[in-house]
From TrEMBL:
The keyword Glycoprotein applies. The keyword Signal applies. The gene is PRELP. It comes from the Eukaryota. May be implicated in biomineralization processes. Has a function in binding of osteoblasts via the alpha(V)beta(3)-integrin. Belongs to the small leucine-rich proteoglycan (SLRP) family. SLRP class II subfamily. This is Osteomodulin. It is found in: Secreted, Extracellular space, Extracellular matrix. It comes from Anas platyrhynchos platyrhynchos. One of its GO terms (cellular component) is extracellular exosome. The chain crosses the membrane at residues 57-77. Its main location: secreted.
Length: 309
């Protein structure tokens, strides 16, 4: 397993080389295609931070092809770059990639053949881009997929089916509505521990959430009610965030949060007038900015009676 500290240490060692690469990119005024196939084959990391605008280069549509860099394990091309799509030749032959960070770009689409070749990829970060849908043909060994702050309003059918190793899926701050989700949307995510759907346009709780979930983030939506026994199938659920929704007493079944392993519950900024029933094992409860008038010990459940079992 490669650690972030190891990546950063190696990156610092190779900074002079990276600076040369960036200078060459900014000097390529007649080409929008970047091919690094002549770079030394021993390079384990390419770190391209464009903090200054390349005034001599026309790179509004970047083409990144890492032809012969077979040992490459990390690619970070972020911090306000100009990449707007990933064509088929992107990362060509770089089958050893384990970590790709394309945050803070303008990527609108990803060619279906780009990602399916990266069989060893573990981390894929594409936050703050312009994606309209979750990219298809995702690598089967992904453990983290971060797609927050895009314009995603569509999740293709079966896109997660082969991602049994995925533990984190971050889709917060997109344009996901209730119609996007069905009982099979998350099918295949057997080991998912964290699901972040915050700051979308949901009015209902999403169906088909994987049973292994530990952390569920649904804050800043328009959710009005929670179905009876919705959380019953999540024995490991420890952290729920539902603040900034439209949940009222009427939309909250009596034992919704009386869960054995629940430790943290965020319900601030809703429309509650009563404290919900909770397990005595709960450690943190946030109810600020509701309309609660009184509290009562009767709202604390008995130990061992959570999860509706």
């Amino acid at each position: 397993m490669y650690s972030l500290s190891r990546f950063l240490s190696l990156a610092k060692t190779l900074l002079p080389i990276f600076s040369l690469v960036i200078w060459l990119l900014c000097s390529a005024s007649h080409s929008s295609s970047v091919a690094l196939s002549k770079a030394p084959s021993w390079m384990a990391v390419i770190w391209l931070f464009w903090r200054e605008r390349c005034t001599q280069a026309n790179i509004w549509t970047m083409r990144v092809a890492f032809g012969l860099l077979l040992p490459l394990v990390l690619v970070l091309i972020s911090e306000n770059n100009f990449i707007d799509d990933l064509p088929e030749e992107s990362f060509r032959n770089a089958t050893g990639l384990k970590w790709v960070n394309l945050d803070n770009n303008r990527i609108r689409k990803v060619d279906r053949r780009v990602l399916e070749k990266l069989e060893n990829l573990i981390f894929l970060y594409m936050e703050k881009n312009q994606l309209k849908e979750v990219p298809a043909f995702l690598p089967p060994n992904l453990e983290q997929l971060r797609l927050s702050r895009n314009q995603i309003s569509k999740i293709p059918a079966g896109v997660f089916n082969k991602l049994e190793n995925l533990v984190l899926l971050d889709l917060h701050h997109n344009k996901l509505s209730d119609g996007v989700f069905n009982k099979n949307t998350f099918k295949g995510l057997k080991n998912l521990m964290q699901l972040n759907l915050a700051h979308n346009i949901l009015r209902k709780m999403p169906p088909g959430v994987p049973n292994a979930i530990h952390q569920l983030f649904l804050d800043r939506n328009n959710i009005e009610d929670i179905p009876s026994d919705y959380f019953k199938e999540f024995p490991n659920l420890a952290f729920i965030r539902l603040n900034y929704n439209q949940i009222s007493d009427k939309g909250l079944p009596k034992n919704s949060f009386n869960l054995t392993n629940l430790l943290v519950l965020h319900l601030a900024h809703n429309k509650l007038t009563n404290v919900p029933f909770i397990s005595s094992k709960l450690e943190h409860l946030y109810l600020n900015n509701n309309s609660i008038e009184s509290e009562s010990r009767r709202h604390v459940g008995r130990p061992g009676r959570g999860s509706g079992r």
